[in-house]
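Appendix B. Raw example, untouched.
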Amino acid sequence: MQHFKDKVVVITGAGSGMGKDLAILMAKDGAQLALNDWSENTLAETTKICRELGATVHQSVFSVGDREAMYKWAQAIADQYGQVDVVINNAGIALMQRKVENTTYEDLEHIIQVNLWGVIYGSKAFIPHLKERPEAALVNVSSIFSTFAYPNQGPYVITKFGVRGLTEVLRQELSKTGVAVSCVMPGGIATNIVRNIQTDHPQVRDKFASIFQKMAGTSSQEAAKVIYRGIQKKKKRILIGKDARLADRIIRFFPSAYEKILLRKYDVDAYGMN
């Protein structure tokens, strides 16, 4: 897929970060857009920018963890545009750093509902429409944390391992169709994912967000460009950032030893909230 002019591109989590920047890139390339986010205000801002760039935009505010809403949205897009060419399941959330044993079931269920079920719903709802096209793309955003575990981010790691597994299965199952399936694995990206964490400890969250921003080695604009080019080239794995590429190599060569490196570098008890 060398260009996106007149293609119908679906993006979840388009209110900010990589989703917003991907929408802007696609709009500049002449795509017709279908954008989703849980935040009405941020989605409206993205929609305004894309429309000013000349794109037709179908927008819908809902949580991707709502299966009924996802299927209704998919049908509404197909009814409006008559086709769906690219689906980018980008929406995701994070939790405060905390050990699995100290994470409530409510928090576990919430992050799994959004990060994993949201991608499952977004894939299953749109695959029938994508298969109708001579050339299409399904892009699921996972994380470099889908290749290795990281202490005190267990719920997030669980969901991203799941997204990667789902995507690799779908790639095989759709191999004889015109649908190219890509798994995006970003490293540290400067987005608002940490600042959007819902918590009773806003000061701790803000400190965590400040540290995360300093560690993030790639801007959301840069990340969007890498994903954009990856879709064009039909790349199966889209690694984003030097940190992601380095981590990928380390895990390939030291699939077990990496745990000792992490435990040596980080004080797990110090980083995990009770």
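End of appendix B.
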